[in-house]
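Sample entry (423 residues):
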Amino acid sequence: MLGASVWTGVPVHFHSRLFQCLTWISCVSFLMCSSLAAVAAGRQPAPSADPLSSLRAGSLVVWEAGSPQLLDWREIRAQLAADFPGLRVLFRLVQPQQLMDELAKAQTEGSAPDAVFVDNWTQGGALIAQQHVIEMMGRSRFSPSRGWWFLMREGQYRETATAFLHWLEDDPHWIAPPFSTVGLNAADRPEIAAAAVLAVSSLGSGSAATSIADTDAISFSTQGWGTYCGSVTGMANPQVRFLAGNGRLAFAALTSEAGSTGGKTDCGGLMQSFVVLRKHSDGWKVLLLMPSVSLAQATSFGDNFSRLGLTPANGTPPAPPTLLSPYDGEPQTRFPKQQISWRQNSIRPAAYVVESRFGVAEGGFVEYGPSTINFVDPAQYGDVVRMPMPFGVGMQPHRWRVWAIGKDGEVALSEWRTVDFTN
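Predicted structure, serialized as tokens:
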């Protein structure tokens, strides 16, 4: 597992009597309970040591195989120098087609780099095949949609490289955004935090977390994070970074230290997650868990929910959207991009959300990974919405459905449909 965590988010402050929230769920481990208790009391779980300390006066060798223009390489170097002026760093740009030969030469000479970035899976797969690397589990805050970061096992400055990857995943200057909490009462906050922490922690515990799962939620899954990371075997210090909502619908971002084994490569680092919850008569339930997003992505999702201006007043609940096309199981092309459509037979909601999941077919069975979401503004459409498919990551099956979110936070969901992409 890559390093400990530095908790720089704004703590969530709760009334002390609300420690009782811990009794309504069974904690998956003593560590989780301790972390949750700290959150409920408005304290940050204290790390055992500063995880970035080795960057303050250490040395580091980083290789990058790819396009420095596309990877914000100049920004990475400038921000790292500004945060850690005492750090001695050797950045080396390597031509992708020469990476493996150069790496073999460096390993023979005892001068292997400490961290390597690749933006092509030809090189990433070759690195994993050699079993000399640990893949960074989370997403870099610099160009998070591109490439893969690896920690080299033979690197001379392993501790500094671990801290460097931690820095890539979590901005030490990050400040929690001022999302609205109008409608959330003092009892809601610790229940939301408890349910969100339990959902995220269940990924590493093997427990199903059924007590806090919404009836409309899919099973919590990490399939699709990393590349070939395997199962999560370690989860520690789950930290609520922000928490907001209106008393019926809430959302939160969490950071956890995580590690995985059993895949083609070991993985480790920080796992950022985004969680959406609904309030039911028996408490707050997790409707959506998105593991392995970047903190910037989680903040963007939170901003989309916050922009709805959800009010605590009761309103007319939206009707579930009626999906029109494509029909369930219909083959579709990603290029050219096809359309999805649905009808809303009642008043327009405050927002639509298209939830989608990609699947991996094996032996006649399809395993679907975690969801991703796209917001759609109803003001741009009439009763029928037709739009290009906002999903499609490969020639494989995908599932999708549509949420209608009312101004008061009520959510109505359509059925699921499956699309099988042919290119």
